[in-house]
């Protein structure tokens, strides 16, 4: 058999590349004659640059930029020809904030990465959005590019209170002639019931009162820039980074679709007998822009079965089939929670070997 292994990261334990290697090792342990092809995936969040570098090659450029609370952190951007790929989570990810005080987090660091890309001669910049710990509408990014306003833009969303004037002439001039693409795993607008603050605020430490405050401040920020852009799908991605990139003329695409196209996943699925995907928690949120659902859809188009290996499987068989999976296997159920978190690579290898007994002759 030919097996295509295309997982996302297992958040907090394994990168997508590590997960793919562990699954492949387990499969080969039981079925050494099967051909196993690795295609680690990303939806635009953490691991975006590593996944694309593993497939596309290119040059990794080391940079230093501001984290959400202002201290400097190392980051890498990937240059492939005249295209530069940026992973926003490297400098504004929730892992840098501990899921706390999102109202004070700034996206200045993402703006620094965008400047580095432009200075490297990029004619096309693809920014992966996901896993952010910030909620400033991308104001920090714009500030890093030279935006001016009647309030401070570089110290977090909570300081957008009272904003009524924003001058974007300098940022737009800097990126003139550069194609900007926001690769996201969500299509939420900037504000409102399904906006950045209400939908994703809780995972950034925002209580209900702060969510309401920030939503109002982002409404004012949109009024001072472009309300129509704030309504665009994906404007609310990464705490509103999508909005800032669209203000600069950027367009939004599905992160999983962009990565799938870059790695030729559709062709690889047609050449496979079975497609394996996975992520840390396989639940019903996996249906919207996430890697497993995207991989399953591509497998279905190729008329190939698709199974998921996950840290936890939190849906029933009916929901699993609705998500396009022929089967889903839980790491915690197979080896126990202590082993799953204590030795995630070894445990995933063991689970993959068990799954191979079912699916490989």
UniProtKB/TrEMBL annotation:
GO BP terms, alphabetized: organic acid phosphorylation
Entries under InterPro entries matching the protein: Glyc_kinase_flavodox-like_fold, Glycerate_kinase, Glycerate_kinase_RE-like, Glycerate_kinase_sf
One matching Pfam family: Gly_kinase
Keyword annotations of the record: Kinase, Transferase
Enzyme class, spelled out: transferase
EC number(s) reported in the record: 2.7.1.31
MF terms (GO), sorted A to Z: glycerate kinase activity
Residue ranges of coiled coil: none
Similarity comment: family membership: Belongs to the glycerate kinase type-1 family.
Listed name of the protein: Glycerate kinase
Organism: Nocardioides kongjuensis
């Amino acid at each position: 058999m030919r097996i295509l292994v295309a997982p996302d990261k297992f958040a907090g334990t394994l990168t997508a590349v590590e997960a793919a290697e562990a699954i492949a090792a387990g499969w080969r342990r039981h079925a050494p004659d099967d051909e196993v092809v690795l295609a680690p995936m990303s939806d635009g969040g953490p691991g975006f640059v590593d996944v694309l570098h593993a497939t596309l090659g290119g040059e990794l450029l080391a940079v230093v930029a501001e984290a959400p609370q202002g201290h400097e952190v190392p980051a890498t951007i990937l240059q492939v020809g005249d295209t530069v790929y940026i992973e926003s989570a490297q400098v504004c990810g929730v892992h840098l904030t501990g899921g706390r005080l999102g109202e004070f987090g700034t996206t200045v660091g993402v703006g620094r990465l965008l400047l580095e890309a432009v200075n490297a001669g990029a004619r096309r910049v693809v920014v992966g959005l996901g896993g952010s710990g910030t909620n400033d509408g991308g104001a920090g990014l714009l500030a890093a590019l030279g935006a001016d306003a009647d309030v401070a833009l570089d110290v977090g969303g909570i300081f957008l209170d009272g904003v009524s004037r924003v001058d974007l002439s300098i940022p737009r001039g800097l990126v003139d002639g550069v194609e900007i693409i926001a690769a996201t795993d969500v299509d939420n607008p900037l504000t409102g019931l399904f906006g950045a603050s209400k939908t994703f605020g809780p995972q950034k430490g925002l209580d209900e009162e702060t969510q309401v405050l920030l939503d109002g401040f982002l409404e004012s920020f949109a009024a001072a820039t472009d309300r129509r852009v704030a309504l665009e799908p994906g404007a609310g991605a990464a705490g509103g980074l999508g909005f800032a990139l669209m203000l600069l003329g950027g367009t939004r695409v599905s992160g999983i679709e962009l990565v799938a196209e870059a790695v030729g996943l559709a062709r690889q699925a047609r050449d496979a007998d079975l497609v394996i995907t996975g992520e840390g928690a396989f639940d019903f949120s996996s249906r919207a822009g996430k890697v497993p659902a995207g991989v399953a859809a591509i497998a279905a188009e190729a008329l190939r079965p698709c199974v998921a290996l996950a840290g936890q499987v939190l849906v029933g068989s009916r929901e699993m089939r609705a998500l396009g999976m022929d089967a889903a296997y839980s790491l915690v159920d197979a080896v126990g929670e202590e082993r799953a978190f204590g030795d995630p690579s070894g445990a995933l290898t063991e689970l993959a070997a068990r799954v191979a007994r079912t699916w490989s002759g």
